[in-house]
Write a structure and sequence with these properties.
The protein has about 120 residues and is of the alpha+beta class. It contains 5 helices and 4 strands.
């Protein structure tokens, strides 16, 4: 067990929201036992729940839960994927776009976004 791990002894309640899960649970952090309430991103919660532990500092405060729940879809996807996208080379990104461009739905959406950008440029001039 990692020194920063907090053991989940018992889950008292969990409330699934849009992007997060609010949880009340009994925890044990190397003998420091207590009941905590906070939240996790949905993608992380299932792993923590299964492993019965999470890394200290990953529990979101009520303000943190509210922040993620109130993000627009654009802001949410930017936060969720921008860090991961930075891990790929331009060549890898281009190959993925080429692969997806075989799909008509993707091509239509991409063309629409490009046309919107062109219209905005023309409008600003």
């Amino acid at each position: 067990m990692n020194i920063l791990d907090v053991c989940i002894v018992d889950i008292v309640s969990e409330e699934h929201l849009n992007r997060t899960v609010k949880v009340t649970m009994d925890v044990d952090c190397w003998g420091d036992k207590g009941r905590v309430t906070g939240g996790f991103l949905k993608a992380d919660w299932e792993k923590y729940k299964h492993d019965k532990k999470y890394t200290e500092g990953r529990l979101l405060s009520d303000a943190g839960v509210s922040y993620f729940e109130n993000l627009s879809d654009d802001e949410w996807y930017e936060k969720k994927f921008s860090v991961k996208l930075a891990n790929f080379s331009d060549k890898e990104i281009l190959e993925e776009v080429k692969r997806r461009s075989k799909n008509l739905k993707f091509r239509t959406k991409l063309l629409g976004q490009l046309l919107d950008e062109e219209r905005q440029k023309e409008w600003l001039q």
